[in-house]
Amino acid sequence: MKPFVDIVSVFTDNADRVVDQLELLYDDSQYLKETIGNLIDKWLSAEDIAGKRILLKPNWVRHSIKEEDAICLRTHDSFLLAALEIILIKKPASVVIGDAPIQGADWDAIAPEPLVTTIKVLSQRFKIPVWIKDFRRTIFTPSANRPQIDRSSLDEYLIFDLGHESYLEPVSLVAPNPFRVTCYNPDRLAESHGPGVHKYCITKELFNADVVISLPKIKTHQKAGMTGALKNLVGLNGDKDYLPHHRIGGTKVGGDCYPGGNYLRYWAELAMDQANRHQGAWAYKLWQKLSSLLWRLTFPGAVHQMAAGWYGNDTTWRMVLDLNKIAMYGNAEGKMCSTPQRTIYSLCDGIIGGQGNGPLDPDPLPLGLVSFSNHPYMTDICMAVLMGFDIQKIPLLASAQELSNQQEVSLYLDNKPITLNTLNNFSIKTVPPAGWAEYLASS
Hints:
Elements: E1 4-9, H1 19-23, H2 29-43, H3 46-49, E2 53-58, H4 69-72, H5 77-89, E3 94-99, H6 107-110, H7 113-126, E4 130-134, E5 157-161, E6 179-180, H8 186-192, E7 193-194, E8 197-203, H9 204-208, E9 211-215, E10 217-221, E11 225-227, H10 229-232, E12 246-247, H11 263-277, H12 283-296, H13 316-329, E13 344-357, E14 361-365, E15 369-373, H14 376-386, H15 395-404, E16 410-413, E17 416-417, H16 420-424, H17 434-441
Parallel strand pairs: 1-16, 2-3, 2-9, 3-4, 9-13, 10-13
Antiparallel strand pairs: 1-15, 5-8, 6-12, 7-8, 10-11, 13-14, 13-15, 16-17
Helix pairs in contact: 2-5, 5-7, 11-12, 14-15
């Protein structure tokens, strides 16, 4: 099948492209099923799904903290249920719905009883097994200081080593053990990533599936600029000890946590490393408080975040592309193949997206669209154009464009062929994360 991105707008005019109006669409199950069904039916026949094992990968990054999160933080429950029913109509052998949220996320709040019950009802109605799975191996809430590790056996995962083929390899030599991920022990991360070694902990559900359909929520992202089809596949990794998000230190010393160099900030990072080494022990909170104090003494600005949430983050985008490479070209033996091993479809929930402090604390963005695609790179480029972003200023998207240029991808908007220039006419002003705002606003 030729690469495509098929976008449908769900508003009739700009007067309807507002949060209050678009939010009502999530309550209209028939409209959602028709909209999603028309998109999927155009590209996937009953034969493409019948008898197949399906993996549905929603964006379930975290449970709701504020009221607006229900519409802009995760793939909306109604969107997921509509997509599931459309798939079940095509009579697959089974469906797995799964993700790996952040370690502090409350799974019962992400997949609450009403949602689980409705999924069970659909499973019984169509007589097709549907499983809901939490792919996380570790849970840890800093305030409680009680980590739960090895929740799932490693037998349920494939440790996939990209070695020298990793996008992280060029930045692996800057310092011993440079990689970090917030709230995780840096020593564990050093075991999985270093020169010539780049391991990921991939759920075997990816390799067991015949068809993979990702359901991203389109949002801004502190570390990657935006999150969509590409970033959503990070949730296939079940242990974040395998996920570099940034490199320790400022840019002057080869890190990418913040611009320049500052001894107090670096000492704050080292103190946080000590805290993460002592999770579950009394020393954890002591080191955490010291780290916070040192960081505050540096009078940090918008681009100074210990989690490296700024435009100079040069690590997260590499990790994201690594996982997409594995998802497309990796086989069940842990080897990279020269040809794609599976097609990754992306069904994007962009009815209401997220802007501002995404991906964990976004504000509603009235994007007003649903899209379906078999090309995650071009999907994210299209979504970024619709968000009004300069894709050349976002490393993940600039790299995606370079990879997309190797193929001709057909673009459609409301059943009409379009170009990226045409799509730009439908863009909406989007508030970027604080660490990106000034950079993206400059010419």
